[in-house]
Amino acid sequence: MPITRRAALAGLAAGTALAPMRSGRAAPSSKVIRIGHLTDISGPYASTAGLNSTACARQAVLDFDAAGHGIQVEVIPADHQNNPDIAMGIAREWFDRGNIDAVLELNNSAIALGMNTLTQQKNKVHLNTGAVSAALTGPACTHNMVHWTYDSWMMAHAPAISLTKAGDKDWYVVAPDYAFGAALTQDVTRFVTAEGGRVLGVSRHPFPGVTDFSSYLLAAQASGAKVVALANGGNDIVNCMKQAREFGLPQQGIRMVALACQMSDIHGMGLATAQGMLAGMAFYWDLNERTRAFAKRVVPKMNGTYPSSTHAGAYACTLHYLKAVAAVGVDKAKESGLDVVAAMKRIPTDDDCFGKGLIREDGRKIHPTYLLEAKTPGESKFEWDLQKLVSTIPAEQSFRPLNEGGCPFIKT
After folding, report:
1. Which of 30, 97, 332, 406, CA to CA, is 20 to 30 A from 231?
2. What is the pLDDT at residue 6?
3. Nearest alpha-carbon partner for 260 in 195, 173, 347
4. Positions in the chain whose pLDDT score sits under 70
5. Cβ contacts of 296 within 8 Å, gap of 6 or more
């Protein structure tokens, strides 16, 4: 991982923000738009999110500034440590005394669900680019939140439908025992059973702090399942895949599906371990000319790491948020998060990571998704050439239909 735990903690005590990034022409401090990047800097999701996402958000500020908007912007990261109490404490301090206008990423579903309530109470903006739970645009949705990048419905949909239709009907799920894992388990179970398949069992492991997944993987192996779905993320996926390879699951013809996998996870475990693993993703750096152009800009600022989906989401959502700020004006943006989110929904989205799209009434960002397979070592041409495209899911099929979510302010 290019940004080490030691380096992160040297610049960030628990709950304390790092130095902000400033961009734009000089302006009075009351006119500064401040984005609090609340992320995992020292824990299991540090490589898939963390300070590399901060670098991507700051690239969005630079790209926005290059268009001549003349708005001063600060991006201020802090480590939530995957602890909802710590996260809420940081956010309250930001909103009450730090003059923060929007909170970005929150790559933890339990934290994100709490943030939905807090940003509504404070009339701030919740730019969710990292949490997975589809409840954020379902029963827990608010007018102050935008859910970018992915969610549990999207991550489960592509692999579950594709593999079950192809005849792999017996599944087993390994999931962390909190909101993120529960959401993924629920969604993949629904899709598999809808196609005539079965989920033979679910193993739930504590989070965080588990590194030995042997008992869960052996239970999956013993079940007779043809597909093992990993409903975890970050280092947990890496450790699960390494141990699954040690126990011979892929060698026995069991399909390994990492529902919340990111490219940095594949890089971390290596293609000798990852080869053949499937994942549904919203972004891959080598999809087209625009994604490659984005990677070229940010890789030097990520110490040579190539961007994963969460990194791309931090960039794209920040850029679109700033376009909305410019549309309503800085004074109104600082006064009312509701007005900014409403503008984000009115303005069509367009960026180098996800292309053209839109934000739906319930806050769900809509774009195509991709079923990707990890390459074999022999197929890879260089270090970050890690995946190949299996299929593309059109935008209109990639996310849960609006009338099925249960968002309380959606009239169906």
Report:
1. 406
2. 35
3. 173
4. 1-30
5. none
| CATH classification code of 5-150+287-367 | 3.40.50.2300
Lookup result for tokens 């600060």: 74
Residue 364 amino acid letter: R
3-state secondary structure of 316: helix
The β-bridge relationship of strands 170-176 and 227-230 is: parallel
The residue with tokens 């030097």 is: 300
188 in Cβ contact with 162 (< 8 Å): no
Dmax (CA) for the chain in angstroms is: 64
Q: pLDDT at position 251, please? A: 95
Top-level class of domain 153-282+368-402? alpha beta
Query: Domain coordinates of the chain in residue numbers?
Result: 5-150+287-367, 153-282+368-402
Q: Which secondary structure element, helix H or strand E, spans residue 10, and what is its range?
A: helix 5-11
For 256-294, give the DSSP string.
Answer: EEETT--HHHHHHH-HHHHTT-EEEES--TTSSHHHHHH
DSSP secondary structure code for residue 167 in this structure: T
The answer to whether the bond into 159 is cis (omega within 30° of 0) is no
d(CA 48, CA 264): 6
Residues in the chain: 412
Partnered with residue 255 across adjacent β-strands are 227
